[in-house]
């Protein structure tokens, strides 16, 4: 271990430093296992684990659709890292570069622009790179202006508020064109995120419609756009076909082998020539590796993921490790050579265990273990009491698949605290009615105060006021939206 390998660091412990970049599945589970196995060394100062993550929590993404539908509180979809990783050093910030030759990572934090000291240079002895992925977008006209993502808990809750707000607009407006656009919801992408988000929100909106005097469930128009010829490929062709039939039976328009060509001026134009004026366009058409990977001196595949070995080490690089969305890991259980493990939660959680053990083995000079896991199958929710599953060769649909979906993910969500809270919420939601409240003002908490104080500008950066420009997917205030106090001229 080089004496100058520390760099500028958040701590001064003299032992081996393990830097974990990312606080998602791989980052949290790896750090959790390392913390457990290095307990004595961490407390004696012989080892230090540093986690660099943009958010102080890990998001359990399979629960995002249910959070959007109001079945689970958004606080229970996330796991606070400081509580779970009590013996680790948590740095809330973003890694901008990794110079593995010098064993340093350049990190910007919330305080970087405030104290004028510049980015941190965090040195390390072992590094785990697990920054996850970001939404993969295409240069489609209007997408950046009006598209809504569905990858974070903030986006999930924002989308729920947005859908209910559109129903409020449709209920209040006198313009038939505005009403039709407000009640038209377009989802692009037929994978897990798109199908589950659409199905859960359609369920929620259909239930909510009963509380509007002038909106019926049949007035809502839901459209799923998928470029390939099938949806939910992970559950198999038969279950994917069943899912299409289930969605269409609920009057959801499923468009296969169709692309979004443009969404300028709030009009979704599809490759089959269809045009849909809409105020809601949700983009879930895949992900791509985090930009950090391109800012390292580590080998990448043609798709931009880190080239890894079966032991989860970065190829031809010692003391560098990766797993999950960021890593191209060979699948040793596949029949055809050269196949890689799928970048999903099932592999990420299991890879984290092997990765942590191999990091410790590397530190202690012991043999490494290869990652090997046969894909068990997949489950997907299609709304309340509806789902599809293809697990260990068995195909399930309807209520049994939905129950398996909930049981599986309840067993996988981290910590007993979160399991108990989620189970309690599911139980209560079965006994009482759904919540149908939109809390859109949560996204701009200072708007009301700025209005009262006579502010006309955008106010504090990051907390726009009443005259702020509209964000992606947000309707203009002069397009039929009722005033903030809920009153209308009618």
Automatic annotation (TrEMBL):
Matches recorded under SUPFAM superfamilies: FAD/NAD(P)-binding domain
Keyword Nucleus on entry: no
Domain of life per record: Bacteria
Pfam families the UniProt entry points to: Pyr_redox_2 (PF07992)
Top-level EC class: oxidoreductase
Residue ranges of domain FAD/NAD(P)-binding in the record: 17-351
GO molecular function, one term: oxidoreductase activity
Biased composition (Pro residues): 463-474
Record field: compositional bias (Gly residues): 453-462
Keyword presence, NAD: yes
EC number(s) recorded for this UniProt protein: 1.6.99.3
Matches recorded under InterPro entries: FAD/NAD-bd_sf, FAD/NAD-binding_dom, NDH-2
Similarity section: Belongs to the NADH dehydrogenase family.
Annotated protein name in UniProt: NADH dehydrogenase (EC)
Record organism: Streptomyces globisporus
């Amino acid at each position: 271990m080089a004496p100058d390998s520390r760099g500028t660091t958040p701590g001064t412990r003299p032992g081996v430093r393990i830097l974990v970049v990312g606080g998602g599945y791989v980052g949290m589970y790896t750090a959790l296992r390392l913390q457990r196995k290095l307990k004595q060394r961490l407390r004696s100062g012989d080892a230090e684990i540093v986690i660099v993550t943009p958010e102080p929590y890990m998001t359990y993404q399979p629960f995002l659709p249910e959070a959007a539908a109001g079945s689970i509180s958004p606080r229970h979809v996330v796991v606070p890292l400081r509580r779970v990783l009590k013996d680790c050093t948590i740095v809330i910030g973003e890694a901008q570069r990794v110079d593995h030759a010098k064993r340093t990572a350049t990190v910007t934090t919330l305080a970087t622009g405030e104290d004028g000291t510049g980015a941190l240079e965090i040195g390390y002895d072992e590094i785990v790179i697990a920054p996850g992925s970001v939404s993969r977008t295409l240069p489609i006209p209007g997408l950046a202006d009006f598209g809504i993502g569905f990858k974070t808990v903030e986006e999930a809750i924002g989308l729920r508020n947005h859908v209910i707000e559109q129903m409020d607009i449709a209920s209040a407006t006198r313009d038939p064109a505005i009403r039709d656009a407000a009640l038209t919801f377009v989802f692009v992408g037929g994978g897990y995120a798109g199908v589950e988000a659409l199905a859960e929100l359609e369920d929620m909106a259909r239930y909510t419609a009963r509380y509007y005097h002038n909106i019926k469930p049949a007035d809502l128009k839901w459209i799923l756009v998928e470029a390939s010829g099938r949806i939910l490929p992970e559950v198999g062709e038969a279950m994917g076909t069943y899912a299409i039939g289930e969605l269409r039976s609920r009057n959801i328009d499923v468009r296969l082998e169709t692309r979004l060509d443009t969404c300028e001026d709030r009009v979704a134009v599809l490759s089959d020539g269809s045009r849909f004026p809409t105020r809601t366009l949700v983009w879930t058409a895949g992900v791509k590796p985090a930009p950090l990977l391109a800012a390292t001196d580590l080998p990448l595949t043609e798709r931009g993921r880190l080239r890894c070995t079966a032991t989860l080490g970065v190829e031809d690089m010692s003391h560098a490790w990766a797993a999950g969305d960021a890593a191209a890991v060979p699948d040793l259980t596949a029949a055809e050579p050269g196949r890689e493990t799928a970048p999903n939660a099932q592999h990420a959680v299991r890879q984290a265990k092997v990765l942590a053990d191999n990091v410790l083995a590397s530190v202690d000079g012991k043999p490494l273990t290869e990652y090997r896991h046969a894909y068990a199958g997949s489950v997907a929710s299609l709304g309340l009491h509806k789902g599809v599953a293809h697990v260990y060769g068995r195909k399930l649909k309807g209520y049994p698949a939905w129950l398996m979906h909930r049981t599986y993910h309840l067993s996988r969500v981290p910590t007993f605290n979160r399991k108990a809270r989620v189970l309690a919420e599911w139980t209560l939601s079965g006994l009482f009615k759904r919540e149908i409240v939109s809390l859109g003002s949560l996204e701009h908490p200072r708007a009301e105060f700025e209005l009262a104080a006579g502010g006309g500008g955008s106010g504090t950066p990051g907390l726009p006021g009443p005259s702020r420009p509209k964000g992606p997917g947000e309707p203009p205030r002069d397009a039929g939206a009722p005033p903030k106090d809920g009153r209308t001229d009618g």
